[in-house]
Amino acid sequence: MKPVVGAVVSNKMQKSVVVAVDRLFHHKVFNRYVKRTSKFMAHDEKNECNIGDRVRLDPSRPLSKHKHWVVAEILKKARIYVPPSAGPLPANSGSKSEVAASSSS
Fold first, then answer.
1. What's the pTM?
2. What is the pLDDT of residues 24-54, one digit of tens each?
3. What is the Cα–Cα distance from 60 to 43, expressed in whole angstroms?
4. Distance (Å, rounded) from C-alpha 63 to C-alpha 76?
5. Dist CA 43 CA 35 (whole Å)
6. What does residue 9 show for φ and ψ, rounded to 5 degrees?
7. Which helix (H) or strand (E) holds 10?
8. How many CA atoms does the CB half-sphere of 105 hold within 13 Å?
9. pLDDT-based confidence at 104, cuts 50/70/90?
10. I need a labelling partner for 93 at 20 to 30 A (CA). Which of 11, 23, 81, 84 fits?
């Protein structure tokens, strides 16, 4: 088997991830290209993968009932949204309430 490239869709397990691999093939009857998705469970030794990461999987010996792949490398990290902290605003932020209070006085 050759290495495959896919996107991480789940990392809720310890040292394991689920990777979705897309492939295109030509359908002879419809004369169109059809996309199919396969999901593989893979071993992530250091728990580095997050949802949305693009990873390369290498085949390995069976590690568990469903796990026969190992994450070889993370090709592209996903952009993770970090909400702004709910702490106090800085003095020069110019929030609407401060601007409205200063203009009305």
1. 0.73
2. 999 999 999 999 999 999 999 999 999 999 9
3. 9
4. 25
5. 25
6. -110, -15
7. strand 4-13
8. 6
9. low
10. 81
